[in-house]
Amino acid sequence: MKILVANLGSTSFKYRLFDMGDTEATLLAKGGFERVSEYTACIGEMLATLKADGHLASGDDLDAVGFKTVLGKDLSGCVEADDRVLAALDGFKEVAPAHNPAYAEGIRCFKEKLPAVTRVALFETAFFQWVDPAATVYAIPQSWRELGIRRYGFHGASHKFIAERSAELVGNDAVFERARGLYVDGPSDYSGDPLRVISCHLGGSSSVVGIRNGVAIGSSMGFSPQSGLPQNNRVGDLDSMAIPYVNKMLGLSMEEAERQLNKESGLLGLSGVSNDARDVREAAAEGNKDAQLAVDVLIDSIRHWAGSFYFKMGGAEVISFTAGIGENDANLRAKVCAGLEDLGVVIDPAANDATVRGKEGIISAPESKIKVCVIPANEELVIAREVYRFKQSH
Ligand code: ADP
């Protein structure tokens, strides 16, 4: 089954074409376009390339297109990307302005260009559908809650991959199967060996998630991808009183405060150096105190959320690191896991240092009670798999 995964940025269009089977997934082709102002031309060019390279006889040769949609109003899961999805994206376009309009536009373009090809949306919030309301509801007035203001959770495709892959790595087949079938079967009854995972997705944007037996119990992300850990340019958690206070003290309008919290905060705002964790780390190593503070705040925040999920799950069997920072910054991983010997976390420094640049592996020592893993992110594969399962079950 040929499945195309379309990754739509506000100025970019990237794609991967997979040949999917029950157990096999083969990446046939990948490509993309930058500085994109409208997607229709890109789709045409992409189809021409895929035909010329012999991957498709025609556009209709595609079985489905998958979209990693971010946040839908009153809608989540892995669903057909129809008018309901377009309305849901539109309903929250103010909350995810960099993502929702781009996906709505992309879905429309595919519908126009390839009307016979099934379109499937896998929302980034999907992995968090079964989180207990106690962990998603904000203590705000009813009228605010009715607008859909609550914790959702993002990076769902990435954390779902960790739920599956970490179970495979530690040989827990029952949890692997449960995690795999989640969007089709829901969280089925479970009585096998427990697998509690603290999943740290640390990249341009970051989140920590607790996963019990393949199902998420909560995320550091909230109403928008703005909360939780400090992000590259975005603030992460912030007391809501700070906004009226800067309005009074600095005369910032709501729009300007929002812009600064989105574009001039996070690692960039703290370090004053860069929004890129590599530059920040380098500056810190050269003695820049602001850069060091940025690194320390990130580490403290990861530990804060990881500690929360450890406590909520009553322990953990696995701590997992993924995405650009999580896969590459061995020093940060060591600091996140430092001083946790009483919880049973012992890092193997040699394994930790060697597991970088896309390598997968276990970086804890054999005697470590909790296994610490590095698992390279593969969000496109997760989308292709879920679209495949969607097609099989519909
Ligand atoms: P995105 O979240 O935008 O998809 P990535 O998952 O690729 O991005 O993560 C990007 C982040 O990973 C950047 O902050 C980058 O500095 C960081 N990163 C990449 N390589 C390294 C490295 N060797 N050491 C530390 N951080 C790194």
TrEMBL record:
It comes from the Bacteria. This is Acetate kinase. PANTHER family: ACETATE KINASE, ACETATE KINASE-RELATED. The gene is ackA. Its EC number is 2.7.2.1. The keyword Cytoplasm applies. GO terms for cellular component: cytoplasm. Mg(2+). Can also accept Mn(2+). It holds the Pfam family Acetate_kinase. Keywords: ATP-binding, Cytoplasm, Kinase, Magnesium, Metal-binding, Nucleotide-binding, Transferase. Belongs to the acetokinase family. One of its GO terms (biological process) is acetyl-CoA biosynthetic process. One of its GO terms (molecular function) is magnesium ion binding. Its cofactor is Mg(2+); Mn(2+). Pathway: Metabolic intermediate biosynthesis; acetyl-CoA biosynthesis; acetyl-CoA from acetate: step 1/2. InterPro entries: Ac/propionate_kinase, Aliphatic_acid_kin_short-chain, Aliphatic_acid_kinase_CS, ATPase_NBD. The record marks 155, 234 as: Transition state stabilizer. SUPFAM superfamilies: Actin-like ATPase domain. It catalyses: acetate + ATP = acetyl phosphate + ADP. Catalyzes the formation of acetyl phosphate from acetate and ATP. Can also catalyze the reverse reaction. Mg(2+) binds at residues 7, 379. The keyword Kinase applies. ATP binds at residues 14, 276-278, 324-328. It is found in: Cytoplasm. Homodimer.
